[in-house]
Write a structure and sequence with these properties.
- The protein is an alpha+beta fold.
- The protein folds into 6 domains: 169 residues, Dna Ligase, domain 1, CATH 3.30.1490; 111 residues; 122 residues, Glucose Oxidase, domain 1, CATH 3.50.30; 149 residues, no CATH class; 94 residues; 161 residues, no CATH class.
- It has 34 helices and 23 strands.
- Helix 29 packs parallel to helix 31 and helix 32 crosses helix 33.
C-alpha cells in the first residue's frame, strides 16, 4: 500500500478518498493551515491484501474471517462482517506493528480519532453518516478501531444508505485516516446546562465567514458543508456550516453549533443553536433557547464536502394566496419549524419519529414505492445540519420539527408551505394544491437579531425620559425589513422576535442570563442611566412590560414591591428581593408575568411562591425554579383560551398540579412540569396526568410512547400500517398497566381510549378510500391487518365474556377476507346496528357467515367501542363561564 511514510501519491483522492484528500490539501493552504489538523492517511490496500489472503486460504485464517468474505463478490451477513473486523485487526497487528508509532509522530500521542474516507462527500452522493468514525483511546486499541472503521460500510444501515444512490452497491473496505482527538475536558466555567447552546461573538462569526470564503475559493465549490471543532472556555463546541458563496454577496447560509463531541452532526441529549449568515456584511441572526457566550481558544476544520442540495434561497412552488386560505379553512394548520424545506409544496405521506436519526433509519427501511410517496418527516428534536438532515436534503424530503401531540389523530398527509411558515394536516385524498413559484429564503424558524446594552444607547435615553422607542430604533431594522425572499408576515415576525422579549430565548454571559431582545437590553441600559425603576415598565411596549418588571426586580431589588406587588404582599418584600435580585433574570420575569395575571388568584400564588423561592435560593436553582413557574403559566394559558372554567375550578386545577410536583426533587419535578406543558388533555385532566406520573416513575415515558405510536400509525403507509397498529395496541397495554388508572384515574384512561378509537378509525378510513380507488393486495391486506390490530386493542380494553366471543368471530371473518380478493362493493347496510352484529356473532352456536364486506365490520367496531367507553363524567366537566348552570 502507499504508506504515509513514503512519498504522497500523485492522486491523493484516488488513494485516500475525497474526504481525506481535501483535509490533506488544507495543510498546505497558507490561509487555512491555522485551522487544519494533522492527518495520517490509511489507504485501503492493506485491507484488500487481507481479503486476498482470506480468499487464497479458502477462508482459513484461524477463524478470523469467513470464506468468500471479499465484499465485492456479494452480500456479507452481519455476523460475517463482525468476523472481518476481528480478522483484519489481527492481520493489521501482524503486518504493521509500528503503525501506532508512525501515527504518534504525525498526530501526537493518543487519544486519536480514526475517520472514514470511503464512498462519501461526493457531489452526487454525500452519504453523510454512512460510515463510522471512532475514538481510539490508546495504541493497544488501534488495530481494532481501524478495522471497525475500514469495514464499517458492511453494516445493514450503511449498505441500505448507499443503495439509495446505487442500487447495485456492494460493500468493500474503505480508506481511513487518523487525526488528533480534541481535548473535550478543558472547561474553565460551569459546564453547559442541558438547555444551553453555544453563541459566538460577532468577531468569531466574521472570522468563520472569511475562512469559509477561502474554502469556497480554494475548492472551487459554490456550496459547501464543513464541520468544525472549537475549543472554548465552555468545552468543545461542534459546528456544521452549510453555505453558499457568490462574488459580491459573500457567504450566505447557516451554522449549527452544539456543546460536546460531534453534537452538530448527531443530536443526543441537547439541542443546537443556529446562526444565519445573511451575506453582504449583514448582522447574523441567531436561534437558541439559552444562548451561552463562549470564548474560542482554537478552531479546527475537520471536514469539507460539497453541499449541492443546500440552497439558501431556493425557488419553490408554494401555495397561491387564494389556495392558502382554502387550506386554512379545510385543514388543521400549524406553525412549522422547517429543518429541511420541501423542494416543492405538495401534500404527501409522512414519517414521524422522536429524533432525526430514528426517522432516517425508518426511511431506509421503506421500499422504493413507499419512499416516493413520503415527502415529509416529522421529528420532535433535530437540527438542520445533522447527518440525517443532510441525507433527507439530498433526497428532497422535507423535515418538520413538531411535537407528537400537535399531530391530529386522523392525519394521513401533510403539506408544508415555507412561504407562510405553516403546515397543514388532512385525512383521506389530499386536494391538489394550486401553487406559484417563489424564491424562499431558508432562514431557520425562530431566528432573530441579538442585542446588548452597548447597542441600545439612544433607546435607553428615550426610555429614561419616559419615551417609548419603536422597532425602527433597532440597529439592523432596515436589514430585517428588506430581507430578501421572505413573506411580509415572516419579516414582521422576524422584527417582533428581535424587538420584544421572548420567554423562549435568553442569552447567558457568565452568570447573567437576560433577554437579548432590543427592548430588554434598552431597558437594562436605561436602568444603568438612572431611569426610575418603578416607571420603566410603563415606558416600554405592553408586550415587554412583564419582562421589564422582572428586570427591575432583579436589578433594583429595593423596588421589588412596586413591580411585583402581589408577590411582595404574600411573601414580604425582603424575602422576595433576596430571591429575585440575581443575575439570572428568568425567574423574576416569570414571576412578573404571573403577578400581573388577574385571573391567577392569591390562592395559587400562595401555594406556588414558597417552593419556587426556595429553589431559586439553591445553587443553580434558577432552572429548577422555572419549571413549575412555566408549567403554571402554560396551564393558565390553556384555561384562558378555553374560557369555560370558574375561578374556583382554576384554583383547584393549578393547586392540584403544584401538589403533585415533588419539588424536593428538582429533576423529577422538572420532567413532570415538561409533561404538563406538552399535554394535549383538558387542563383538569392534565393535573391528574401529572399526579399519576408522579406516583409512577415510568408513566410519563409510557404516555409519550403511546403518543408517538399514535402518530406513527397515522403516518404509516399501507404495507407498514398493520405493524404500526399492533405497536400502538402494545403501547396502550403498557400504558394502562398498574392500579393508578383505576378508580379516579379511569377517566384519564377513557380519554386516551377515545383518542385511540378515532385514530384506528381514521387509519382504516384512509386505507379504505385508497382501496376503493385502487383495489390491490397491499391495500386490501393493510386494511384488514389494521382491523385485526384494532381487535387486539379491543381485547386490551377488557371486554365482557360475551364481547370476547364476538371478537373471536370477528377475527375469523377477517382471516377469511384475507384469504380472498378485495370486495367489489364496500357499502354499508342502511340501518346497520353494531349491537345486532355483535350479539349475532357472540350468541350463535356456530360462527355466522361474514358480512358482505369488511367495511361493515369496521363501522360496527367503531360504534361498539365508542358506545361502550365511559363518557366524561359530568361532575368533572368545567363550568362554562358564560351562562353556566353549574
Amino acid at each position: 500500500m502507499d504508506r504515509p511514510s513514503n512519498p504522497r501519491p500523485a492522486d491523493p483522492e484516488s488513494a485516500y478518498g475525497a474526504k481525506c484528500a481535501r483535509l490533506l490539501e488544507l495543510s498546505t493552504h497558507p490561509r487555512l493551515t491555522s485551522v487544519a489538523l494533522p492527518v495520517f492517511p490509511l489507504a485501503d490496500g492493506t485491507a484488500r491484501e487481507f481479503l486476498n489472503s482470506v480468499r487464497e486460504a479458502g477462508g482459513e485464517t484461524g477463524g478470523a474471517a469467513p470464506q468468500g468474505a471479499a465484499g465485492e463478490t456479494g452480500e456479507t451477513p452481519p455476523q460475517e462482517a463482525g468476523e472481518l473486523v476481528t480478522g483484519y485487526a489481527r492481520f493489521l497487528r501482524r503486518q504493521w506493528p509500528g503503525l501506532a508509532d508512525e501515527i504518534a509522530r504525525t498526530c501526537g500521542p493518543a487519544p486519536w480519532i480514526v475517520r472514514s474516507s470511503g464512498a462519501e462527500d461526493q457531489e452526487d452522493n454525500i452519504n453523510a453518516g454512512g460510515y463510522d468514525s471512532l475514538v481510539c483511546a490508546g495504541p493497544e486499541e488501534l488495530p481494532a478501531v481501524v478495522a471497525a472503521v475500514v469495514f464499517s460500510g458492511y453494516g445493514e444501515h450503511a449498505v441500505a444508505q448507499q443503495r439509495l444512490a446505487d442500487p447495485d452497491f456492494r460493500p468493500a473496505p474503505i480508506a481511513a485516516f487518523v487525526q488528533p482527538l480534541i481535548d473535550t475536558s478543558a472547561v474553565s466555567g460551569p459546564p453547559p446546562a442541558p438547555q444551553e447552546t453555544p453563541r459566538l461573538g460577532r468577531p468569531e462569526t466574521d472570522r468563520t465567514a472569511r475562512l469559509l470564503a477561502a474554502l469556497h475559493d480554494h475548492f472551487g465549490m459554490a456550496r459547501l458543508d464543513c464541520e468544525w471543532v472549537l475549543e472554548t472556555d465552555a468545552g468543545t463546541v461542534s459546528v456544521t456550516s452549510l453555505t453558499e458563496y457568490e462574488e459580491g454577496s459573500g457567504v450566505v447560509g447557516q451554522l449549527s453549533l452544539g456543546f460536546g463531541f460531534a453534537s452538530a452532526q448527531r443530536l443526543d441529549g441537547t439541542d443546537n443553536s443556529v446562526v444565519w449568515l445573511p451575506g453582504d456584511g449583514r448582522t447574523p441572526l441567531w436561534r437558541g433557547e439559552v444562548l451561552r457566550s463562549v470564548q474560542v481558544k482554537a478552531a479546527h476544520l475537520v471536514q469539507v464536502r460539497p453541499a449541492v442540495a443546500f440552497d439558501p434561497a431556493p425557488t419553490v412552488q408554494v401555495l397561491t394566496d387564494e389556495d392558502r386560505e382554502v387550506w386554512e379553512d379545510t385543514h388543521t394548520g400549524r406553525p412549522v419549524d422547517l429543518l429541511v424545506p420541501p423542494r416543492q409544496v405538495a401534500a404527501t405521506a409522512f414519517l414521524a419519529a422522536a429524533r432525526l436519526d430514528d426517522a432516517w433509519t425508518q426511511y431506509l427501511r421503506l421500499d422504493a414505492r413507499q419512499r416516493a410517496a413520503t415527502g415529509h418527516v416529522l421529528v420532535e428534536r433535530g437540527s438542520p445540519a445533522e447527518h440525517a438532515a443532510v441525507m433527507f436534503r439530498q433526497y428532497g424530503v422535507a423535515v418538520l420539527r413538531c411535537r407528537a401531540e400537535d399531530v391530529p389523530e386522523s392525519a394521513s398527509y401533510v403539506l408544508a408551505d415555507p412561504w407562510a411558515e405553516r403546515c397543514y394536516f388532512g385525512t383521506g385524498h389530499p386536494p391538489r394544491a394550486r401553487t406559484v413559484p417563489r424564491r424562499v429564503a431558508a432562514v431557520p424558524s425562530g431566528c432573530r437579531l441579538l442585542f446588548d446594552e452597548r447597542s441600545c444607547g439612544r433607546a435607553a435615553e428615550a426610555l429614561a425620559d419616559g419615551r417609548q422607542p419603536g422597532p425602527e430604533a433597532m440597529p439592523g431594522y432596515e436589514e430585517l425589513r428588506s430581507a430578501a425572499h421572505l413573506s411580509p408576515a415572516a419579516r414582521e415576525r422576524l422584527v417582533a422576535r428581535s424587538f420584544l422579549p421572548d420567554p423562549e430565548c435568553h442569552h447567558r454571559d457568565g452568570t447573567a442570563v437576560t433577554s437579548p431582545a432590543f427592548v430588554a437590553q434598552a431597558a437594562a441600559a436605561a436602568l444603568s442611566l438612572g431611569a426610575d425603576p418603578a416607571r420603566l415598565p410603563d415606558a416600554v411596549p405592553p408586550e415587554a412590560a412583564g419582562y421589564v418588571r422582572g428586570l427591575v426586580a432583579a436589578r433594583a431589588s429595593d423596588r421589588v414591591a412596586a413591580v411585583l406587588p402581589r408577590c411582595a404582599r404574600l411573601m414580604g418584600p425582603q424575602r422576595l428581593a433576596a430571591a429575585t435580585g440575581r443575575p439570572d433574570v428568568r425567574p423574576a420575569a416569570a414571576l412578573a408575568r404571573l403577578d400581573g395575571r388577574d385571573a391567577l388568584s392569591d390562592t395559587v400564588l400562595r401555594r406556588l411562591l414558597p417552593p419556587v423561592l426556595a429553589l431559586v435560593d439553591a445553587d443553580g436553582g434558577a432552572d429548577a425554579a422555572l419549571d413549575p413557574l412555566l408549567a403554571v403559566e402554560s396551564l393558565a394559558d390553556a384555561m384562558d383560551a378555553l374560557d369555560i372554567h370558574a375561578a374556583d375550578e382554576r384554583d383547584d386545577i393549578l393547586v392540584r398540579l403544584l401538589d403533585a410536583l415533588p419539588l424536593e426533587d428538582p429533576a423529577a419535578a422538572g420532567e413532570l412540569c415538561r409533561l404538563a406543558r406538552r399535554s394535549s388533555l383538558p387542563p383538569g385532566e392534565t393535573s391528574r396526568l401529572v399526579a399519576t406520573a408522579a406516583a409512577d416513575p415510568d408513566f410519563a415515558a409510557r404516555h409519550l410512547a403511546l403518543e408517538r405510536c399514535r402518530v406513527a400509525l397515522s403516518a404509516a403507509d399501507p404495507a407498514a400500517a398493520p405493524r404500526r397498529a399492533r405497536e400502538l395496541a402494545d403501547a396502550y397495554r403498557a400504558f394502562a398497566r398498574g392500579p393508578l388508572l383505576e378508580g379516579d384515574g379511569r377517566v384519564l384512561l377513557n380519554l386516551v381510549r377515545c383518542d385511540l378509537i378515532e385514530t384506528y378509525d381514521a387509519a382504516l378510513k384512509d386505507l379504505l378510500l385508497k382501496l376503493v380507488d385502487r383495489p390491490g393486495p397491499v391495500l386490501h391486506q393493510g386494511y384488514l391487518g389494521v382491523m385485526l390490530a384494532w381487535l387486539e386493542l379491543a381485547e386490551a380494553f377488557g371486554p365482557t365474556a360475551r364481547e370476547a366471543r364476538a371478537v373471536e368471530v370477528f377475527r375469523a371473518w377477517i382471516e377469511q377476507w384475507q384469504a380472498g380478493p378485495p370486495a367489489e362493493d364496500h357499502t354499508i347496510e342502511e340501518g346497520a346496528s353494531w349491537r345486532r352484529l355483535l350479539e349475532g356473532a357472540a350468541d350463535a352456536a356456530t360462527p355466522p357467515p361474514a358480512p358482505a364486506n369488511a367495511h361493515r365490520l369496521h363501522n360496527a367496531l367503531h360504534q361498539w367501542l365508542l358506545a361502550t367507553t365511559d363518557r366524561y363524567p359530568a361532575e368533572r366537566a368545567p363550568a362554562a363561564s358564560p351562562g353556566s348552570t353549574r
